[in-house]
Amino acid sequence: MHACARQETGLNGGERPARFFPLLLFILAIFLTFIHPHFRVPFTSKIIHIDLGVATLICASILLIFSGNRIDLLQGGIVGIENLRPYSVIVLVLSLSFICLTLEYAGFFEFVALKFLSSAGTGRKLFLNVFLLSYILTLFTNNDIVILTLTFIIFHICRHAKLNPMPYLFLQFFVTNIAGMTLYIGNPTNIIVADFAGIDFVKFAKWMVLPSLVSTLACAGVVYLIFRRQIPERLETQAQEMHDVETMRDRGAAAVALICLSLTVLLMSLPKTVVRIPNWVIPLILALPLAVYIASRGFLLKIVQRIPWKIAPFLLGLFILVEGLAASGWTGMFSSVLSGIPDSGPMSVLLPCLMASWFSGFMNNHPMTVFFSRSLPSSWRGMFLAIIAGSNIGPTTMITGSLAGIMWSEILAQHGRAISFSEFSKYGIIVSTVAIILASFIIWLELGML
Fold it and tell me: Are 101 and 148 in contact (CB under 8 A)?
């Protein structure tokens, strides 16, 4: 591959200390995001929580204060460059979250899940149903929402059926993450990479449907082999206990939200010559009538309060920090490293996919995606597809690979099923290795044939 054509300039005239300053702030932001510490304000009883919505903004603010080109950093971090538009990613993610959270609050996901799961008469059938449900819901919604919703439902089902929930929880988590690479809207990281590489909704699906399907099927097979002795032949649950909680909270709101989500997917899949508005505007427009409708139903405020607003300052601060890395030459140096990857052969996809997966595990898939995207010219199609796959597989490698993984582990701990980093990785490394190899090989084949 050819070295990146963009020339990076030093943050303050190319001085060595200035070059390391943005990198240290970037590492600090990731560290604070992981540990989200609490600090007490000196001489007061006030506690400050440095969560994901604050950590990157604090570090980005420090960078802006001490940089000599803060206007450029702000413009690059908010408006973006080339095809990477931070504001459009934030609006799209929040708009989709609003639509999906309305579906979740109205009881649609729980209704569908319990319909699937209550039909299982054996542990193996339940395993199959969890796989199908995780994959299908992830296709058309945000994988974070599916993970958090299904985790509670699986606990509910397994409690009634007197089952060990861990095989089904691992299956759901791994499948939902890997299946997130299927469509453009499946994961915010997809949107970041696809927009930068100029890959639209239809092209994204053309490239990623097959790698996603094969790798998720393989993932399910591996999880089954690992936990097969903990999956019973018959369930002890009573069907009536399931049906008693199947009534949706608000069928009208669920219907309207489902229409909005369906239109979002449909309009995004149409050619740009037909739909003459950017992708990020589509869910925003459709979210507006939905907001009016649920306001008339009296629960708009409840949905608004549940929107992951913190992802906006998190991504904004992250984009500014990566812009600082670019300005100080780090993305250019990393581009040189990536340019050493072979031009052809399976390794041309396998190596960047492996790197993206492991970097996601160590630094979270959002920072990885932004940093990798800024390090590549948009013409490197195969490598961008590998990064998309890696950003979705990465959270199965280590529990720190995604924000959903961290929240998932907290839910397990609250239900008395705490899982350590080492225990998760013991299974995750096996599953992710299989997924990385298969997804990379299929992408390489597609690049040679399409």
Answer: no
